[in-house]
Amino acid sequence: MHLPMIEKNYQPADIETRMARLWEEAGAFKAGRPERRDARPFTVVIPPPNVTGSLHMGHALNNTLQDILCRFERMRGRDVLWQPGTDHAGIATQMVVERQLMERQEPGRRDMGRAKFLERVWQWKAESGGVIVNQLKRLGASCDWSRERFTMDEGLSRAVAKVFVELHREGLIYKDKRLVNWDPKLLTAISDLEVQQIEVKGSLWYLRYPLEGKAFNPEDSSSFIVVATTRPETMLGDTAVAVNPDDERYADLVGKHVILPLVGRKIPIVADEYSDPEKGSGAVKVTPAHDFNDFEVGRRHNLPQISVLDQEGCLALLDNEDYLRGLPEGASQLAEELHGIDRFAARKLIVARLEDFGFLERIEPNTHMVPHGDRSGVVIEPYLTDQWYVDAHTMAQPAIAAVRSGATNFVPKNWEKTYFEWMENIQPWCISRQLWWGHQIPAWYGPDGKVFVAESEEEAVGNALGYYVEQEVITPEQGDEMARDPDKREGFITRDEDVLDTWFSSALWPFSTLGWPDDETDVARHYPTDVLVTGFDIIFFWVARMMMMGMHFMKDVPFPTVYIHALVRDEKGAKMSKSKGNVIDPLHLIDDYGADALRFTLAAMAAQGRDIKLASQRVEGYRNFATKLWNACRFAEMNGCALPVDFDATQATQTLNRWIAHETARATREVTEAIEAYRFNDAAASIYRFVWNVYCDWYLELAKPVLMGEEGAAKSETLAMVAWARDEILKLLHPFMPFITEELWAVTAKRDGLLVLTEWPRKAGLTSDEAVMMATTSPNDGLLPPVLLALDTGDFSDPAAEAEIGWVVDLVTAIRSVRAEMNITPATLTPLVLAGASDETKGRAQRWNDVVRRMARLGEISFADRPPEGAVQLLVRGEVAALPLKGVIDLSAEKARLDKELAKAEADIKRVDAKLGNEKFVANAPDEIVEEEKEKREAAVARKARIIEALERLKNAA
RNA sequence: GGGCGCGUAGCUCAGCGGGAGAGCACCUCGUUGACAUCGAGGGGGUCACAGGUUCGAUCCCUGUCGCGCCCA
Is the model's pLDDT at A117 over the cut of 60? Predict the structure, then answer.
């Protein structure tokens, strides 16, 4: 077969489309490929993006890092399962579809009815739900797409029902009437985590509450008590006034009563620690039904809870039995007046009314935190309702212990503190939502409100009907009839209308996606997963809850390692947001620079524990890196570099080739170890430096004369070695830049298979059998400690080769530097005289004659005992290299240059002497450090001597 | 108020007990046989500040100042 030539230009878009198709057709990302049936699995579950989402920078980073790990382990022979899928995102999705209905001027959700609306959501999902999946594919995510899951799939829904029922049976899920965070816009309860505290400039209103039995007189402070509040409108629901038990000002008032202004309700003055004597007046009004703290105060003092708002945050006073109970005649007039008014309008009205009657003492400006819904943006209302809760405190204990014991580790470690902090102070998790889109709670109610929880409707209805027959509420005949015909039981047995918090189903993701509870084959093989990669912003929402559910249902952690990455910010460090208009769209970057460049940028910047400030300039730079690699491969192709089948790099004889083998092994070790340690930035830096600054800058340049020269053993070995090192580069770079490397892999040689499934460069001398062992042995069986996986460069290390190539590099660099400094144009070829050269140096100079002349723009290279007069004299590895430039250069400039060098050498000597002269240093420092210092001193002294000689000669020349 | 983290070259960031690094930007030079999406060279930093530990601190400890995030 004839290989296609490498295209002249690197065109990411074209390559990406083709490579994606290639992988797809080969089923390269599929878990459980037959040839890997016996390999150790490597499993990662994707943090499921919202089905409504589109790819943002956070996704790009998160999935790039996961993909690097997956491709790396796949090349190391593991049977990789990267489990993809999306989240149904209850509120977000429902909002999207409702907005769409509105835009199309179709009937709204409520007009349409539940069943019809849900049909519409599914329809929307079918049409638009795949967007983010396709975007992840563009990024190169090597998920097993054939196993894509959705949190509302049948299987996952069964998992949800089972978990709910079991936790309910164990008493870990229960229904409770207490305050929740109520969103008056979305008309649903939300969890603590979905509430954002936002600083708001408000006011503190000081209100006079008249004391019972005294004639209220605004001028007489003994006739009232002053309470301070940030929410005057809730005063209608006050059921007490609280003062601190240690507050002497109010000591004699405790136990007495006040008459609630405007309302006329008689309420007690109680002593409670909650009241802070330093704040406001030291007395607070207590509204148990509208404030979390007051709720607790109310419980402690057995106070009634009077809710005065409705679901939408409007005053609800008429027909409000709790409110009207025990009120004097005429109170209903106020109720009629205020009923139905929005909470913020009511605030103004009530304050005005209080002022009219002298109950308002003063208003102070006050900045305080106000809870807002993270989706709706409106002020959250603490609201008294029945909701379902998970006993998070109990469930957290094994999850805390698992991290304490090290069964699960966070990387970087410091996130464990955040995890513990939250888990140890965890509150009951409110899991019911008054939405339609989501997993409907598997609870059914009988006519008396008794609840029947079961995994299926049949089961629940069966239980319920049995119960009511037994209780003789219905006859057995009626029971049979209702069991047969759902219409007949309508109004008798009704299902809970609410759905579960989206995070409830996400918490099961590591095992529900593997088939639990229906088929546990994959659970056995892939649970626990190997690592979770996610952002710190969802440690509470998701990681903690997966830990709880995993420990409870699988009796094991969901993952031994949690790699927490940072946020991607804009180049100034601001959080990207639509409102700020500073969002960088990863898809635009992919269009402009290619997915590989974007991926490499994110990896290179993913230093642990630090946010990423992304500038598109960086991406451009790494696109250039891809171009560089592209051209290096073209160069190899143009010279006919190819790898013979039986070529063994360890057996190379040419110095240059032994050197690049050694450097390749070093890069292999660095990249491998860095990925293993989740140091993605170090891995990226290593491969970048190796490709550009070692392979391209030196190896290819030094190899040119051989490649262009005559046929022979040296040339054929070099032709092979250029190809060999190129192939190693393509492998090492593949996890970071999968598209370009796969393309180059295909066009540079006839291959047995795709690069994506090619074996990762391994320790030289390790047999394939051992590599297979490594891949199949479980990590905890103690047979092969991880240290054996470390790569050994032993077979490639060659100090002699390093010394020789090092000399060439130093010589060329020194000459280039001085030529630039002396403003010698490249067109001027200068001769080089190696003065007093050792035999070794002479040999090297002869062997590298062509290269050095070409790279350093030299004429002839000759040898002499002493440098010619008036020459520029360079020190290269302890010997003098002279450029006879008398007449070409300015002698005083050369003198200045040497003076500078001399000063540097002297400074070095001085610094080392100060150290070595310090007895304590010599006594305390490790021997090798002292030895190093001594060697440095010797080198500096020798250098100084040569420079002085050079200066002498210069003087003679002048 | 509690917690976490950050202040290193003009910018974005690595490094973290033994001679200050990268990329980009900047300046000079360059149509050298893969690459101008390139090559060669160069300038530029009391490593926020003050103490302490140490033979030795950009690195460890304490404090101060400045910035960011999370929780109350």
Answer: yes
According to DSSP, the β-strands at A149-150 and A612-613 are: unpaired
Using pLDDT thresholds of 50, 70 and 90, give the confidence band for residue A777.
very low
A457 CA vs B71 C1’ separation (Å): 41
For residue A609, give every residue at least 6 positions away whose Cβ sits within 8 Å of its Cβ, in sequence order, or none.
Answer: A412, A414, A566
Q: What is the dihedral of CA A535, A538, A544, A549, to 10 degrees?
A: -110
Q: pLDDT digits over A462-491, tens only? A: 888 888 888 888 888 888 888 888 888 888
* Cβ atoms A70, A28 nearer than 8 A: no
Cα Rg, chain A, nearest whole Å:
38
Determine contact, residues A529/A45, Cβ cutoff 8 Å: yes
> CA A568, CA A246: separation in Å to the nearest integer?
50
Find the DSSP H helices in A822-848.
839-847
Q: Is the CB of A434 under 7 A from strand B?
A: no
Residue A415 and residue A383: Cα distance in Å, rounded?
Answer: 33
CB contact at 8 A, A172 and A390: yes
Asked which of A91-100, A194-203, A732-741 is least confident by mean pLDDT, the reply is A194-203
Q: Residue A84: which pLDDT band, with cuts at 50, 70 and 90?
A: very high
Instruction: Give just the sign of the alpha carbon dihedral A913, A919, A921, A927.
Output: positive
- For A859-911, what is each residue's pLDDT tens digit? 889 999 988 888 888 888 888 899 888 777 777 878 888 888 888 888 888 88
- CB burial readout A51-77, b (16+ within 10 A) else e: bbbebbbbbbbbbbbbbbbbbbbbbbb
Strand B contact nucleotides, protein CB < 7 Å = 3-6, 11-15, 18-19, 22-25, 28-30, 32-35, 37-42, 54-56, 68-72
pTM: 0.89
Q: How confident is the model at residue A768 (pLDDT cuts 50, 70, 90)?
A: very low
Nearby residues of A894 by Cβ (< 8 Å), 6 or more positions away: A822, A872, A954
| Residue with token string 């579950």 | A45
Residue A766 has pLDDT above 60, yes or no: no
Q: Does any strand B atom come closer than 7 Å to the Cβ of A418?
A: yes
Question: Given the structure tokens 């992304």, which residue do they identify?
Answer: A614
* Lookup: nucleotide whose C1' is closest to A572 CA: B12
Q: Quick count: other Cβ atoms within 10 Å of Cβ A150?
A: 19
A156, burial (CB in 10 Å: exposed 0-12, middle 13-18, buried 19+): buried
Residues with Cβ < 8 Å from A193, sequence gap 6 or more?
A540, A541
